[in-house]
TrEMBL record:
SUPFAM superfamilies: MFS general substrate transporter (SSF103473). PROSITE patterns: MFS. This is Major facilitator superfamily (MFS) profile domain-containing protein. One of its GO terms (cellular component) is plasma membrane. PANTHER family: MAJOR FACILITATOR SUPERFAMILY MFS_1, RESISTANCE PROTEIN MDTM, PUTATIVE-RELATED-RELATED. It is a multi-pass membrane protein. It is found in: Cell membrane. The chain crosses the membrane at residues 20-43, 49-72, 84-105, 111-131, 152-172, 178-201, 222-246, 258-275, 287-306, 312-330, 350-375, 381-400.
Length: 404
């Protein structure tokens, strides 16, 4: 029997194409997860539910993400990256169908939960997949391309989803249907893209015994792991604020009901995060870390000032600055965990990091939702900013201690 061996340069080309295909899939899947964000005011008018209900709907999504990370975020380390991506995309396609066919509040909640399940399966798996494809394509290169592309696909996708959905909602006749039709097509194409990418995980001869994923992040430098985890939590707390309550605040307190503006508001935050990740690659790790902390803290102060003075310009400027800082902090966290985790535990470690990050997405937002029932939104944001500044101060102290 003759065994045909693939030429090394052909294998490298396949992994190079696969890298960009999986990056595109990652971007589309994350973009779909934020499609409802600029549409929440429309859902509120249609069903008559409150801002607190919006936070519950958003929290259900985050609970879906965390549940999926716990149950399946790590299994691609032995089942293969593509199998998990197929399952994740299948869940998102099912959610898109529900958005189209079940438009009341229970349908919205169910679809958001399914979306969260898909995103939880996809984030850690796609990140590990991109790193392995990058190394197979450019074995001698450093990890800069992987860090920039994976983080940009994540944050850029989150921002692109809101911008596209807001634009479609503003100019089409069926604003609660057309965005989901568009993404249903994109998700179907994503399944084809995954099929065209080469697998990077060889199934072990003996499959490990299944166990749920705990918050386990492999790595010898435990202080670095703690700093990365808290940084990811703080970064996603800012992102959660904008993907849940910001559009309603802009439409209500700031009196700007435009759906395009609602999408643009969120896009500014995620776009700034993705851009800051791209341009910070030449900085030293310490400079990135310090710059991210300072930018996020300063942005929160400007953001809060904009809310107190009802200034849209200050609100957007603060969101952009906070988003830029959060993007850098999250990039540093992913790079730290991906570089320090053993290959056999890379998916599991990244799943642990995303588990912490998505906890930051849900816990502060739920707190804001509960607070909004008793105090004005401007007061609850003051509390949020104070807590976040204290958390960032703790991260800075840990980082300085580790540096010494």
């Amino acid at each position: 029997m003759t065994v045909l061996l693939e030429r090394p340069h052909l294998s490298s080309q396949r992994h190079g194409r696969g890298f960009w295909l999986i990056a595109a899939v990652y971007l589309v899947a994350l973009a779909f997860s934020t499609v409802p964000t600029p549409l929440y005011p429309l859902y509120q008018r249609a069903d008559g539910f409150s801002a607190f209900t919006v936070t519950v709907v958003f929290a259900v999504y985050a609970v879906g993400v965390i549940t999926s990370l716990v149950l399946a975020g790590h299994v691609s380390d032995w089942t293969g990256r593509r199998r998990v991506l197929y399952a994740a995309l299948g869940l998102e396609i099912a959610a898109a169908v529900l958005f189209l066919t079940w438009t009341t509040l229970p349908g919205l909640i169910t679809a958001r939960f399914l979306t969260g399940l898909g995103v939880g399966m996809l984030t850690a798996t796609a990140t590990a997949y991109l790193l392995e494809l990058h190394k197979a394509h450019r074995p001698e290169a450093n990890g800069t391309r992987f860090e920039v592309v994976s983080s940009a696909a994540n944050l850029g996708g989150l921002g692109a989803g809101t911008l596209l959905a807001g634009g479609l909602a503003q100019f089409v006749t069926s604003p609660l249907r057309t965005p989901y039709v568009v993404f249903l097509v994109l998700l179907a194409l994503s399944v084809i893209a995954v099929a065209a990418a080469p697998e990077t995980v060889d199934a072990p001869a003996t499959r490990p015994r299944y166990r749920p994923q705990g918050v386990r992040i492999a790595g010898r430098d435990r202080t670095a792991v703690v700093v990365a985890g808290v940084s990811a939590f703080a970064a996603f707390a800012v992102f959660g604020l904008f993907t849940s309550l910001a559009p309603s605040f802009v439409a209500g307190a700031l009196h700007h009901p435009s759906r395009v503006l609602a999408g643009l508001t969120v896009f500014v935050v995620f776009g700034a995060g993705a851009a800051s990740q791209a341009v910070s690659g030449r900085l030293t790790p310490q400079a990135r870390f310090s710059g991210g902390l300072i930018a996020q803290a300063a942005g929160l102060v400007v953001l809060t000032t904009g809310m107190q003075t009802a200034s849209l310009a200050s609100f957007l400027a603060g969101g952009a600055l906070a988003g830029a800082g959060a993007g850098i902090l999250f990039k540093s966290a992913v790079g730290t965990i991906a570089a320090n985790a053993p290959t056999a535990q890379r998916g599991e470690s990244l799943a642990g990091l995303f588990l912490i990050a998505y906890s930051g997405l849900v816990v502060p937002v739920l707190g804001l939702g509960v607070a909004s029932r008793y105090v004005p939104s401007t007061t609850s944001i003051l509390w949020f900013t104070g807590i976040m500044l204290a958390l960032l101060g703790g991260v800075a102290w840990l980082g300085l201690r580790r540096g010494r």
